Amino acid sequence: MSAPLSETEQTMLRDAVRAYLGRDEAPRWPDFAERLGIDAALLDAQQGAIIAEEIGRTRAHLPFADVATAAWLLDRCNAPALPATAIATLAWAEPAMRYDFAGIETHARRDGDGWRLDGTKAVVGWAAEADVLLVAAHTGADALSLFRIDPARTEGLRLSPYRTIDSHPAADLVFENHALPADALIGPEGGALDLLEEARDRALALLAAEAVGLLDNLLEQTIAYTGQRRQFGQPIAGFQALQHRMVDMYLECELARSSAWLAVEALGEAAPERARAVSSAMVNVARACRFVGQQAIQLHGGMGMTDELPVGHYVKRAMAIEVLWADSDWHLARIAGI
Amino acid sequence: MLKLTAEETEFRDAVRTFFARDYPAHVIARNKAGQRLTKQDHIDAQRALNARGWLGVGWPREVGGTGWTPAERYIFDQELELAHAAAIIPMAVIYIGPIIAAFGSDQQKADWLPAILESRSFWAQGYSEPEAGSDLASLRFSAVRDGDDYILNGTKIWTSGAQWADWIFCLARTSREERKQQGISLICAPLDLPGISVHPIRLIDGSDELNRIEFDNVRVPVTNRIGDEGQAWHYANVLLKNERLSYAHIGSKKRDLAKLLEEAGRLPANGGGTMDRDPAFRLAHARVAARLAAIEASILRALRSEISMATAAALKIACTECAQAITELGIDVAGRNRLPMLDRGEADWAAAAPATTPFGPVAVQSYLFERAQTIYGGSTEVQKNIIWRSLAGMAR
Ligand SMILES: Cc1cc2nc3c(=O)[nH]c(=O)nc-3n(C[C@H](O)[C@H](O)[C@H](O)COP(=O)(O)OP(=O)(O)OC[C@H]3O[C@@H](n4cnc5c(N)ncnc54)[C@H](O)[C@@H]3O)c2cc1C
């Protein structure tokens, strides 16, 4: 891991990302990765959190957390790194499981020198755009392994792309006797579980940081709207009921910000401490996403229900963040050790 | 007092049998699957009700209505919802029909009411304006007298179902008075008149059934006004009084809660098994069910007695927040299945996202759309202002 950034370096990184995302044109991944030189940030959660927060603030459609998670896994497995401009994403979730990796049913069996892969992966972010897919599969009872897959090799791979509620691209994947070369296996055969657990916590820390930017923006939009919207001869922000509601939103935003720090700093801890801290953070982030999202719509009245204003789109990204890797109940169970 | 009488129970059974036997099954099937209903579906549904004499709920008998007691009306609503039948689009049948019956001219009753019952005309409600939402009385939409006509100008917004409607009833300012609630008239217009343009508004759930309607020098005869000039605020309040329990939807809440358990039985849980066995989900479900039991009892209490504006406001808050809590349970139990955004008009989700249960997109889109329940019909905040005015009186 690189040395921690100084305050000045952090500010410089934040300003650079903000300037890039503030341009008129929609950001595109390879250009974003290249122009900002994010190679180091893919593996460094402190830098990553700064980038993720700005992505959240602007609701940019960029696979930053997906690519960072995949890059970290490749690095940990001593697999050749990808150029930062490549899109890589991890396919883990399946229709017959909820959030526990133990529920993964996709499996790979040896076939000559290589492997054959069978199984279904659900709602894999950026799968249709990806240059590389990392797929979690069983290679024996209770033995999870990671495979690096080239999605251009479509034989035995059915990919159904669609948009998710946050307008991000995703796809469902069905592997049927999909042939893989010997070197598709990365990392220790059957030893991927701990790696996946750690990768998830890293991804969650980035999501927490993204939520901070996202929720800050929702609060700002709501303050601006209620300050300008007039009913009963005055700006509706003049009603104390709404003032207190926005204060409640602010309190949730601040706890989400502290939660993101908690999660990022916990990534260096031993597994049990890391898990407890990250899950504590995410319980609060999920609560903030729910509350701030609901109140932002409510305080915008009918306008909050429209596709035209950004509010609804921010709310839907917040709704995705709540469950992308696990939900609040899963985190609570992990904290409680049940 | 919370139990049905023997006659009411008999009535309930008759209604139940009707929906099981004499109501279009394809409408129930589409509704159950969470697909959007077409206009034709609504026509089929309304025709079945009308054939039985059950469409004019809340209308007096002499104009073809059911003449039901509030309790019978409630029982009917509940059975309709439990059967997954189509909700009656309220604009014509529930909102304007009873006003026409009470305040309309004989000609208006003869022209408009049978057309509604026979599904020949659908209506839209033109109350809200861009600058007049919660503060409806500040509306600016104008009707200026010109001989035997009114000339209508202005913008109506959030008009539900205008894309299907043949007519719109509008609150229009016919004079400037000291109190802004005065000088407002209730004027109807066919939506195909020159000068009217309907612009769909897309909502966050992907629907586009709300509209903005522009009126540019639209001419309608004075005979399109319902009741007296300047009295619309009064009529709207009479309507409000009649309809104060129409937000209850106890039947659909029970139905949706039951459906959630059923869907949970198909969703995998952490550590194996299915979500209907998941303790956290079951407790959350029980919490909402307990709330609903108290709300149902409150509605039954209200049915059997006169209720104040404040009580009606309190019930509106309780009912709509409970409906939202149910949709929250829905997205919670759906988990990652809430993520795909699929077109609800499409029949074949399974092909679009083969690894996702179709319940997910339905759950998330319901959650998003039902956020509106605490905004329309008087927002929660506005209802609380009404309730507080009555509580403040108690302190004096
Ligand atoms: C799905 C949907 C369907 C609709 N269908 C129709 C229709 O068919 N016909 C029609 O005419 N209209 C319709 N409406 C409009 C609806 O009635 C309005 O949205 C509603 O009156 C609120 O007005 P607004 O949207 O302008 O919000 P605003 O009045 O601007 O309210 C914004 C926020 O300010 C709060 N607020 C306002 N005043 C106060 C106060 N005094 N104290 C505290 N808080 C306050 C509100 O509670 C809300 O949170 C529909 C709306 C929706 C969302």
Return the string of H and E elements of chain B: HHHHHHEEEEEEEEHHHHHHH
- Which residues of chain B form runs of ≥5 with pLDDT under 50? none
Largest sheet of chain A: 4 strands, mixed
Category from helices, strands and their pairing of chain A:
alpha+beta
- Molecular shape of chain A: elongated
Q: Which two chains touch over the largest interface?
A: A-B, 56 and 54 residues
- Computed over alpha carbons, the radius of gyration of chain B is 22 Å
Q: For the terminal residues of chain B, how far apart are their CA atoms?
A: 33 Å
- Percent helix range of chain A: 40-55%
Query: Helical element count of chain A?
Result: 10
Describe this structure as you would to a colleague.
The complex is a heterodimer of chains A (338) and B (396). Chain A is elongated and about 80 Å long. The longest helix of chain A has 36 residues, at 193-228. Chain A has ten helices and ten strands. A four-stranded mixed β-sheet of chain A has the order 1-4-5-8, with helices on one face. In chain A, strands 2-3-7-6 form a four-stranded antiparallel β-sheet, with no helix packed on it. In chain A, strands 9-10 form a two-stranded antiparallel sheet. By secondary structure, chain A is of the alpha+beta class. Chain B is an alpha+beta fold and 396 residues long. Chain B is built from 13 helices and eight strands. Chain B has a four-stranded mixed β-sheet with strand order 1-4-5-8, covered by helices on one side. In chain B, α9 (279-303) packs antiparallel against α10. The longest helix of chain B has 26 residues, at 309-334. The relative contact order of chain B is 0.09. The model of chain B has no long low-confidence stretch (mean pLDDT 95). The chains are: A alpha+beta (338), B alpha+beta (396). Flavin-adenine dinucleotide sits between chains B (125-128, 133-134, 158-160, 210, 372, 375-376, 379, 381-382, 385) and A (229, 231-232, 236, 239, 241-242, 298-299, 301-302, 305).
